[in-house]
Amino acid sequence: MVGSVHVNGSVHGANGTEERLDELRRLLGKSDGDLLKIVGIGAGAWGSVFAALLQDAYGHFREKVQIRIWRRPGRTVDRSTAEHLFEVINSREDVLRRLIRRCAYLKYVEARLGDRTLYADEILRDGFCLNMIETPLCPLKVVTNLQEAVWDADIVVNGLPSTETREVFEEISKYWKERISVPVIISLAKGIEASLDTIPRIITPTQMISSATGVPTENILYLGGPNIASEIYNKEYANARICGSNKWRKPLAKFLRQPHFIVWDNSDLVTHEVMGGLKNVYAIGAGMVAALTNESATSKSVYFAHCTSEMIFITHLLTEQPEKLAGPLLADTYVTLLKGRNAWYGQMLAKGELSPDMGDSIKGKGMIQGISAIGAFFELLSQPSLSVLHPEENKQVAPAELCPILKRLYRILIKRELPAGDILQALRDETMNDPRERIEMAQSHAFYRPSLLGKP
User: Are 1 and 9 spatial neighbours (Cβ–Cβ below 8 Å)?
Assistant: First the structure.
């Protein structure tokens, strides 16, 4: 144990943080004077907060570590966002003073008046994430050239949506062709793709990264957990799991752990990654139900019972020991239903303030990853080769036919043949099974399909 690191993540002793940094540097073979280079790829809410947490914890060790974040250049900040940003700045004396000291305040005044255009990478340098304006972060070192960001990075943090991960890492692979050392990659992405070839299977962001770059899977990890990015940066108590190979997950869990942000480790990378995408599916429906029923606690509890029974049913298809996932999955689902962007999106749809035609990238929120996940899960679980025995009709059916909420969400958001309000019909359908029966069905039948996760 380095210093006095306790199980709750607290570190006693003035040098505890530096000792954790030194331990990771040794593991990565860094010599004195050789910077440990960490770069975040993608500057959404969670990616930006993750980089800011590292900068706050380790950024002052300038001779030992460099922490940067990449985002695409050219994204402008519109006038209404600039006005809101100005209000946020002036409501926080610490932020206001910091900008004045950095001679950066005047540009926000000019932007509010419409006399200047701000850019997303520009404001990120001052600690403002475009998807999370109301939570100012620490100033960040921002890079807009992808090659410059990644070519010699030791640790790369994937903060991209799953829908963008493959494309960007295919570009990154071009800059790594002459690398001698292999980087460590931590993926924060929660989403999946479905491969419907000969053997239907799920493709996760870590698998996309490995395929695109050739980096071995033992060097790629997934970090997920029941958390909201803004609350974590505001030091609300939170926990997460880093999943992957034993070589990297334990030292990285120690390195990332902070008194308010507890990081556990787990070897089951792909299953946890898939569960991170699954809960986003049902969060959208939860938002719809909340808005359509005027936040009725009873209606929301009915929805929760049905959606959790579907998730439990799906986990029995994906893993041989689904009970090990129950706690993490329900915790992540709970917080996403309460305050996540996918639940917010469902609410806005039901209120008519957004429509599916507007796409899955929403101003001020970023990518709504639950939309693509709905399509991927439904299309995958509709494959005849995965059919299971229907307990009442005594015939083979595709698993998706036993998941009425998933099916309804698919018809609303992907096929766009039903209005958002139709989600309530899935709860009011008199032919719908008791959620308990779906769970019992999953527990009493051999539903496990290892091929779904690419296992023999």
Answer: no
How many Å apart are CA 255 and CA 67, to the nearest integer?
A: 14
Number of alpha carbons in the 13 Å side-chain half-sphere of residue 47? 31
Residue carrying the six token digits 């089951």: 268
Please give the positions annotated as active site: 279
CA-angle at 311, arms to 439 and 385, nearest 5°: 85
**Parallel, antiparallel or unpaired: strands 220-224 and 396-397:** unpaired
Encode burial over 309-318: b for 16+ CB neighbours within 10 A, e otherwise.
bbbbbbbbbb
Closest CA to 386 of 332, 326, 313: 313
From CA 182, how far away is CA 321, in angstroms rounded? 33
Task: Provide Rg for the chain, Cα atoms.
Answer: 23
Q: At which residue do the structure tokens 């639950």 appear?
A: 370
* 211-246: burial string, b at 16+ Cβ within 10 Å, e else: ebbebeeebbbbbbbbbbbbbbbeeeebbbbbbbbe
On the 0-12 / 13-18 / 19+ scale of CB atoms within 10 A, 198 is exposed
- Give the Cα separation of 213 and 184 in Å (integer): 12
> Rounded to the nearest 5 degrees, what angle is found at the Cα of 369, between the Cα atoms of 261 and 225?
20
Asked if 417 and 411 touch (Cβ cutoff 8 Å), the reply is: yes
pTM (2 decimals)? 0.91
* Distance between CA atoms of residues 273 and 207, nearest Å: 10
234-237 contacts, C-beta under 8 A, 24 or more apart: 234/135, 235/260, 236/260, 237/262
Quote the pLDDT of residue 430.
62
**Is the model's pLDDT at 12 over the cut of 80?**
no
> Taking Cα atoms as reference points, which of 77, 192, 198 lies closest to residue 130?
77
Taking only the tens place, the pLDDT of each residue in 287-341 is 999 999 999 999 999 999 899 889 988 988 888 777 767 677 788 888 888 889 9
In the beta sheet, which residues pair with residue 252? none
Residue 29 pLDDT level (bands cut at 50, 70, 90): very high
How far from chain centre, in Å, is Cα 207?
15
Largest distance between two CA atoms of the chain: 73
Residues 86, 236, 11, 52: is their CA dihedral positive or negative? negative
